[in-house]
From TrEMBL:
Its EC number is 7.1.1.2. It is an enzyme of class 7 (translocase). Residues 24-79, 83-279 form the NADH:quinone oxidoreductase/Mrp antiporter transmembrane domain. It comes from the Eukaryota. GO terms for biological process: mitochondrial electron transport, NADH to ubiquinone. This is NADH-ubiquinone oxidoreductase chain 2. Core subunit of the mitochondrial membrane respiratory chain NADH dehydrogenase (Complex I) which catalyzes electron transfer from NADH through the respiratory chain, using ubiquinone as an electron acceptor. Essential for the catalytic activity and assembly of complex I. Core subunit of the mitochondrial membrane respiratory chain NADH dehydrogenase (Complex I) that is believed to belong to the minimal assembly required for catalysis. Complex I functions in the transfer of electrons from NADH to the respiratory chain. The immediate electron acceptor for the enzyme is believed to be ubiquinone. The gene is ND2. It comes from Cherax cairnsensis. Keywords: Electron transport, Membrane, Mitochondrion, Mitochondrion inner membrane, NAD, Respiratory chain, Translocase, Transmembrane, Transmembrane helix, Transport, Ubiquinone.
């Protein structure tokens, strides 16, 4: 996705739509922000040269348009039947978010995107729906669908990526699994999901940029990659952090949410989330095994690795990423 002036303008309007939705005081204003966000993202992912991005943009447009239509319908029903309206709004936002059981479009759209476009879809595009869900007044008609979506997202996100060979689909199912933790956190503490989302964005972006730098989209690309050993080690640590393995940064928000779930008695739900996280760690172990399966000639350590032409994920940025992975844990211990 080369950055031309018109794409930069679309990125600015995309960010403006997200901020408008987050700061809105009415559902109509939130809907306008979501539509502005949608209409800015579609030109960024569509392409005349390749059919896959065009197909992905069409799928994304239809799903988001359906969610927006449900939100408009719900806003008109708010005065007549507020409980039904809240239920429909919750379902519409879960659809826009790609949470299970409304998740099937998310991996398909991810498969047709480049890594930079996928980063936007996995991070920025989730921001407005997540905030709008957190703004909902928690009652039976909003709490129940969010709770069920969290459990289903944990299960689907764990089982869906087991046999995948596409790195983009693996990250999409990983994103669905992480969504379950954030949805549960919304029901308990509003601050916790924001901390989780912030670290999720940092780690997911780091992993996706690594795959971009070595032009990897499938497992066999990892095996044939020419990344330096240092870069591969840091990328492995990033994957472990994304899976929530201690002592990396990705474990901290999960630890916070685990403590809060225990305090409110969500023991069975916690068991499901922990088991799903163990399954997702299996994905990352597969990725790391593929990443280190390189020839002896490629694995020799030398100072020339630090003087190779810089990439997006150069050894210097790798060291910075390692600092970001371990620093929060060190501060927590101190």
């Amino acid at each position: 996705m080369p950055f031309s002036p018109y794409k930069i303008s679309f990125l600015l309007t995309l960010a403006s739509g997200t901020l408008l939705s987050i700061s809105s005081s009415s559902w109509f204003t939130a809907w306008i922000g979501l539509e502005l966000n949608l209409m800015s993202f579609i030109p960024l992912i569509s392409s005349k040269k390749n059919q896959l991005p065009t197909e992905a943009s069409l799928k994304y447009f239809l799903i988001q348009a359906l969610g927006s239509a449900i939100i408009i319908l719900s806003s008109t029903l708010m005065l007549l039947h507020s409980k039904l309206a809240l239920l429909l709004i919750s379902l519409a936002l879960l659809l826009k978010l790609g949470a299970a059981p409304f998740h099937s479009w998310f991996p398909q759209v991810m498969e047709g995107l480049s890594w930079l476009q996928a980063i936007i879809l996995m991070t920025i595009q989730k921001l407005a729906p997540m905030f709008l869900i957190s703004y909902l007044s928690m009652s039976f008609y909003t709490h129940t669908p969010i709770f069920l979506a969290a459990i289903l997202s944990a299960t689907v996100g764990a089982l869906g990526g087991i046999n995948q060979t596409s790195l983009r689909k693996i990250l999409s199912y990983s994103s669905i699994n992480h969504m379950s933790w954030m949805l549960i956190a919304m029901l308990i503490n509003e601050t916790s999901w924001m901390i989780y989302f912030f670290l999720y964005v940092l780690i997911t972006t780091s992993v996706a940029l690594y795959f971009l730098s070595i032009q990897s989209y499938f497992f066999f690309h990892l095996i044939n990659s020419n990344a330096t050993p240092l870069t591969k080690v840091i990328s492995i640590l990033s994957l472990f952090s994304l899976g929530g393995m201690p002592p990396f940064s990705g474990f901290i928000p999960k630890w916070i949410i685990i403590q809060e779930m225990i305090s409110v008695g969500f023991f069975f739900t916690l068991l499901i989330l922990l088991l799903s996280s163990l399954v997702t760690l299996y994905f990352y172990i597969r990725l790391t095994l593929s990443s280190i399966s390189i020839s002896y000639a490629q694995s020799k350590w030398s100072l020339t690795f630090f003087f190779r032409p810089a990439t997006i994920y150069s050894p210097l940025s790798s060291m910075m990423n390692l600092f970001g992975l371990l620093m929060p844990s060190a501060l927590l211990i101190i």
